[in-house]
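Quick one:
INPUT:
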């Protein structure tokens, strides 16, 4: 694999932005074999959590090594603490991630634009972002994975997670009443996907049973299952930490429909 640190100007954000990109390289070395396609690469957009940035997946897991075996490109953008939203008062990170970023990444690197080759995953805030993208854009993404995702934003009127800075949630989403039934409400987006008549995004969801987001994940699972969505769910003992995510991202890569034969 080849690892790129990519810094560029974003017309959407009107500021410099960054992403890390891992590209397949057909190579055999000590303890490492690579798989590369002859045409454009399938791509996993891998999203970071609230306290992280575009470098954290590389620094705290072995994602580069895991992706090598699969021959999948990995794009890891930086979105700050935006919750992958077009913020009420702030930057338009949703537009950046869903529109500008894929176009720029494909212009810089040989990445496939086929729905069957595009996937998105993330942890915590990034798990929310991954499901938001997968539920909203089934025409562009074949699969979406949430690892310990913050999936029930609409019910958090008083920030019981204790994650946000003063006024931060309001600046991102507005009031909880504005979230419910809107573009930032995953429960609403799941209902809309259930009505979608084309191929639906397949979902992978996991959460540790000791994670503070566990009950939120169970509520979303019950909702998605009732709607008849294609959800693969896994739970086991675990908390909100990188050892768990390092293990589960391997499971996500095994689950992705990457075969082209």
């Amino acid at each position: 694999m080849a690892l790129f640190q990519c810094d560029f100007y974003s017309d959407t954000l009107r500021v410099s932005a960054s992403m890390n990109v891992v590209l397949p390289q057909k190579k055999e070395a000590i303890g490492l074999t690579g798989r590369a396609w002859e045409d454009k690469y399938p791509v996993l957009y891998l999203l970071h959590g609230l306290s992280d940035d575009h470098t954290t997946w590389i620094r705290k897991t072995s994602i580069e090594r895991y992706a090598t075996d699969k021959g999948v490109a990995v794009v890891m953008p930086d979105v700050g603490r935006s919750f992958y939203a077009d913020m009420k008062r702030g930057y338009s990170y949703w537009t950046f991630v869903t529109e500008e970023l894929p176009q720029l990444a494909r212009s810089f690197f040989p990445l496939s634009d086929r729905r069957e080759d595009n996937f998105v995953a993330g942890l915590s805030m990034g798990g929310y972002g991954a499901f938001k993208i997968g539920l909203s854009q089934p025409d562009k993404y074949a699969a979406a994975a949430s690892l310990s995702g913050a999936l029930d934003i609409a019910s958090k009127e008083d920030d019981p997670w204790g994650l946000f800075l003063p006024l931060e949630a309001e600046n991102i989403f507005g009031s909880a009443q504005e979230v419910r039934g809107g573009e930032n409400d995953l429960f609403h987006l799941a209902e809309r996907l259930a009505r979608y008549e084309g191929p639906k995004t397949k979902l992978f969801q996991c959460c540790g049973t000791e994670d503070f987001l566990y009950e939120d994940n169970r509520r979303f699972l019950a909702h998605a299952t009732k709607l008849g969505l294609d959800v693969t769910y896994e739970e086991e003992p675990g908390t909100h930490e990188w050892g768990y995510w390092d293990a589960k991202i391997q499971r996500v890569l095994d689950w992705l429909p990457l075969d082209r034969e």
